Amino acid sequence: MAHSARRDSPELPDLSLLKRLARDQLIYLLEQQHEVDKLYKVEHKPIVSISDQICFLIRPRIQTVKWICDVVNADKAAGKFRRYKIIFTPQKFYACEAVLEEQGVFGDVTTDEWAFYLLPLDEDIISLELPEFFRDNFLAGDQRWVRTAASALHLLHSLFGPFSKVYGIGRCSKMTYESWREQVEQGEQKARHAEIGNVFLIDRDVDFITPLCSQVVYEGLVDDIFRIKCGCVEFGPEVTSSDKSLKVMLNSQDKVFNEIRNEHFSNVFGFLSQKARNLQTAYDKRRGMDIQQMKTFVSEELKGLKQEHRLLSLHISASESIMKKKTKQDFQELLKTEHCLLEGFEIRECISFIEEHINRQVSMIESLRLLCLLSVTENGLLPKDFKSLKAQYLQSYGADHLLTFSNLKQLGLLVEQQPGETLTVMESKVGKLVNDRTAGKLTDAFSSLAKKSHFRALSRKLNLVKNKDHPSYLMAPMLINGHEFAVTADPQSKSDAQRIILVMFLGGCTFSEISALRFLGKEKGYKFIVVTTAITNSSRLLEALLDNNV
Amino acid sequence: MAFITANWNPLGDAFYRKTELYEMFWSLRDGLRDSLIAAAPYGGPIALLREPLRRSPSTRPQLEIYSASGVSITSFPWKSGPVVYLGWSVNDELLCVQEDGTVLIYDLFGSFKRHFSMGQEVVQSQVLEAKVFHSPYGTGVAIVTGSSRFTLATNIEDLKLRRLPEVPGLQGRPSCWAVLTQDRQTKVLVSSGPELYVLDNTSCTAVYPPGLSPQAGSIVHMSVSFSYKYLALFTETGRLWTGLSNLQERLSEVDTKQAATPRQMVWCRRPRSQQPSVVLMWDRLLLVVGSCNDTIQFPLEDQSVLVGELDGVRIISSSSQELLQEVPLVCQDIFKIASMAPGALLLEAHREYEKSSQKADEYLREIKEQNVLGDAVRQCVEAAAHEYDPDTQKALMRAASFGKCFLTEFSPDQFVMTCRELRVLNAVRESSVGMPLTHTQFKQMTLQVLIDRLVYRQFYPLAIEVCRYLKIPDYQGVSRVLKHWASCKVQQKDLTDEAIARAVCAKVGDSPGVSYSDIAAKAYECGRPELAIKLLDFEARSGQQVPLLLKMKRSQLALSKAVESGDTDLVYTVVTYLKNEMNRGDFFMTLRNQPVALSLYRQFCKLQEPQTLKDLYNQDDDHQELGNFYVTSSYRDKRLEGRLAQLQSAVDEYNKAKNDFAAKATEEEMRLLRFQRKLDDEKGAGLLGLSLQATMEALMSLGLHKQAEQLYRDFRVPDKRYWWLKLKSLAEKEQWEELEKFSKSKKSPIGYLAFVEVCMKNNNRHEAKKYVSKVTPEQKVKAHLAVGDLEGAADAAIERKNEAEMGAVLSRCSASDRLLMDKLNRARVTAAKK
After folding, report:
1. pLDDT of B1-26, one tens digit each?
2. Is the Cβ of B628 closer than 8 Å to some Cβ of chain A?
């Protein structure tokens, strides 16, 4: 089932470099500089420790800083004197210091910074692990993370650059680009052999449809259901079939996972059973071996087989667990509804389905997701539906969601349709830009894509990059939005680096998008490296916009 | 070239030469008589204070500063107290030590910089003598007071006064003393009568120079070498003792046969010196004394001053300036009469070559036979560096270049480098510039420092030329010079702001590393805020403009620049500053015009100052956000009354915002809260804070159907929702009769399939079957399947002639249902035909 990749596809640059870099820095920071011997998680509770020196390693969030202030003040009140050190990563914000000052502990703590930007989750995924980026930037209009993103880009540039072409969609992309350029100009220029040629910057708010859809590739489903954290998932007892839960790293090192991660879920079972059969055959080779063969078998193959066996059984039970949840009637109907919404037919049925969904209180987030999907695909809800659906939602899940609605409206995720902007009008606008060449497997990976998805636009753009057409033509598919740019540094010869493409998602991306890019890469002989501020999915996206947790 | 050796004087094995550096530009009326004179080493400037002790206020003494070539830099009347001593710091600042112990510091151009005092007790006892000395820690000052106590300051930049212990038996002025820096400690060597003492921080130790003849008498003059390594002592009987400054070893003792105390005594040696010597100066005589009992005598016509250098002694008189130094070995080798050193032969060969004589070849052959051509070239290059006269330099370099032609593998680096350095040196030695640096000094002081000094003396064009010529990276070279130039330019009072801004911009352009904000800061310091703003406009990095703008109280501008920079920290800094500077109204108005800053501040307020947030929204008349704000804070309020009050405010705001939906929703929430409260009080139902749906659910599960129905009516809950709820709740409590009654109460808005499914979910097939018949035809098959009635499903499907449904039923059939399958398959075939 694994597609044979095009033979001419280039090698990915070695991202484990980043990991080693970060690890060394951290060890140096904690052990050499601060002699840290025990690690705890920072939480809002008193710290029980006899140590007279406490070191906090935190994100520059005001909330966390306030917790620390409480700790310090509590210690002071108890007459305990300790030394406190706060290490902010990736950078210190003035606002945090202001909080320290206001709480009267500025003199008691010393601060430091650890410029840690990039966490490679896999050989082609790098995460900034900044889930708050989305809310802060797109909802609150707080641009504090733009610089961080630019610094991350700068780091990649200095390690794997120089980039010859940079494309971007969205306001935040533009700002990130500018901030990065500034850093490049201030730093020294070193002529090196480029490992990454092209860069795409994409704002999350350019496309909300993709993350609002249910994911159907294996990795995406695992994320939706079990939640992957930093490339690591915790399978509960129902998967491990024991009473303990198990933490598993999900990356390309896991051979079984690597082969199924990008597959549509319906194909996964077939593949897994095929794999199981292969494994059995491999085990069966034992029979009729003489001693010598047995010895080589044990020393060379058995360990790998055992390992594979373990992983295989894990993924099979995970798939079963997913199956159990997903083959229920409601899921099928859910998918059908999504499909209808994307394709734009039987909208009334969809609305009543959503209504029922809300009435039956199936799930707060799911209901919200469907509402948003409806609004985004239909270019806003009719005033009548808008009111009644919202009212029903409030009745079901509590009036505090009034604030959530206000947030969603601000982002344009759940809006009232403006007169004269019906879907048909918009569709004719968009239809001119995208034609319906169905791209074989792509539809499979996405079940069916929204016509307006920028994802299609992305793949189109790549075609054009290959053709090396006139650069202004590249901009054409993206003229719907106001902030696109394409900057070409110097036309270099077609090298491997030109076919290594860095895609940076500002505000998070989903596993479905990653697997779609992987697929595209395989088809066209490109290699994509995804940099994202965080891995997201529909639930995370919407949870970030809830406002009832204050 | 015999004449080169004409001014060579032998001293032991070595030669000493005296070269004229400059005819002095100055014309001094009284020569150097009755003046305090300070000349800085490394070709530094000369300061001159006439008649420092003249006390009458009517005729103030004149302080004059000259370049080393005697070009006047500045001159001004001395208005402060009587000066005891003048000295130069390493940064070319003039230190004037006054009688009362105050040290005034002036820059090269005579502008006062700062002052410090050498201690309170000095004001009483007065300074008798002072010395400025240089150590690895910077420039220091040492004084001896009227009460015969020494006070030291090792570094004037980081002033720490050290009072040294008393010297036993010393009354009044010591006969002579010197400052030593040894083992990272600064000490004073003082001669008191026949005794010699070393004073350090804590003790005063008597010392005895090894090998000093007992009949030599007491020491009347002493001198420490430039590097603090050697010491020379002159006794009252005219004997000169030289040795190491740690007094462990004697180099020599020479009888100078001069009874008078010399006016000045300075070490004259160079690194790797062959014959270190001491130069002694009397009124009419200059004596060079080496360690080999030899002496050289020069008559002096004019009163002069000796300046000790790293590799020689400068002799400044009122008319001229000369350099006395030991002839470097390499120059001796080349120019010594009848020298057969390779360099000498090469020079000769080249000379013959110029004359087109075949002798050139002979000389060359001779060198090549000995295989020393490389050495010869090196010698010539090296000697050229040490020569002061450009013609000699040229001759040597040409010879080197000539010799180089016959070498295949010879690195040209040294040759090229020396050429360039000589060009630079010749340029700065030019009497209009007046920095008589030798190559050795230049190497010691480094190019960076040379450029700094040129800049400091405002020789900007020359400094830039030098940077460009030596190809120093812009960042360290040209840009640095331009920065200094611009900072100096903005201080020119006679030019308009516009003219200066234009001039600066034209010159500086966008040279890397020049920060316009630094220049602007300078302009602001000089009291030209308008100019500063003009200059700031040129600053490309807006982030750099902000601090100065804030300082200049241009806070609005600062804020917009901070926003432009994209650095949120900077924005925040300005916002905090503004918050403290402005009154609230203005502050909010300012923020309103800067959305980025506003949202940043809002984020902060949300967590830190909710009340400010409210004020912000109020200011903007943002009723929607105010409503949201009240809703948010209502959740923080634990008491119901408070909560309701907050919600009421929210309703008012939503009404103002014309958001009817939100207003209505909030009103309903209030009603619900009151209702819940009532029920909680009456029945202890624990409903407060639940959503409407959850409340109804809770009520039903408590059996309070009446109240639930009341809610259903009051809140106009959609029928569908209510039916679902009731259905679920009844089924869960297995009140099947109630359920049946309910199902018949009116036509179900959610259909009857739901009843079937819910019953099945609660494992009651019997009840479920009751509702199958009521299900609409479209859902019948599903309903039958749900209760597991395959035949019923099959019948329904066949009746509807729906192929897909038949298929669905078929897929559920197992092998035992053969009959049914056949039936279905048949029906399918017929259906397909139609």
Report:
1. 447 778 888 888 888 888 888 888 88
2. yes
